[in-house]
Amino acid sequence: MADGEGSPAPSVWSTGFRQTFESLAGQPVFGMLVAADNKRSDEREERLTQATASIPAAILWFLLITLIITVVALGVCLPRRKNRGQILTLVVITALLTTALCIIRDVDRPFGGIIDVEPTAISEAERQAARDFTANHPAAELPCDDQGNRRTV
Fold this sequence. Notes:
Largest sheet: none
Low-confidence stretches: none
Number of strands: 0
Structural class: mainly alpha
Distance between the termini: 29 Å
Mean pLDDT: 78
Radius of gyration: 26 Å
Number of helices: 5
Shape: elongated
């Protein structure tokens, strides 16, 4: 998700769920299972939307080029002598604006970069599902690997 791309594995899971649900049609649990699968799908779409950058790369490049042109123009306009205060001010402003651009880019991509949002909720759900599966089926192996791909029998 750090690159705004999703895994195809959940789509395979969803297809498997729906195939299993067909055999339960008409039973009371059917509606509950379909609602839970729809909720899971909606939440996945929301996470993918959050992971996708909303600021196009062209705008970030435009802001960076504008910053460079502004700093160079201000640097050229500085007096030749007794300019320590102006140079210090220019360096501080450049550092602040560059940091602001970096923060904007990082906040726009929450699943990668310096501000890295860990997938704690989905990791906890995975841990609970694995725990429940092994508790109910102690001799069985989990049906998928660590990457979410279905294991072959």
